[in-house]
């Protein structure tokens, strides 16, 4: 989780035009408050709805971070070959199962579909994988 947090605290990427390559955003071009943090009760902005338009527009136009999150085990945990989804949300339950010793990954899509995977990790950072458990239609975004 520390590596993940480090990447999200890093530099954003931007593409100046559709034909240009993605380049790092200079720190001075990132609006304040810095996008990526949570709006919490008691802070200046208690909801993301109250953030300045400059911050919200920056988030919409800068969806990528400059660094990548390193792979744990040197290969992907989940590979889906059918690209029917644009994934937008990831939730990990590290205490799943009757003995709270399983890790389950939930991936949400723009179409309202939720994909559920059981993550299999042996601890040696080489032997790992996943088992696709189910696909659930959470909601229909067209309704």
From TrEMBL:
Pfam families: Sema. GO terms for molecular function: chemorepellent activity; semaphorin receptor binding. The gene is Sema6b_4. GO terms for biological process: axon guidance; neural crest cell migration; positive regulation of cell migration; semaphorin-plexin signaling pathway. InterPro entries: Semap_dom, Semap_dom_sf, Semaphorin, WD40/YVTN_repeat-like_dom_sf. The keyword Cell cycle does not apply. Residues 1-143 form the Sema domain. It comes from Liparis tanakae (Tanaka's snailfish). Keywords: Glycoprotein. The keyword Glycoprotein applies. GO terms for cellular component: plasma membrane. This is Semaphorin-6B. It comes from the Eukaryota.
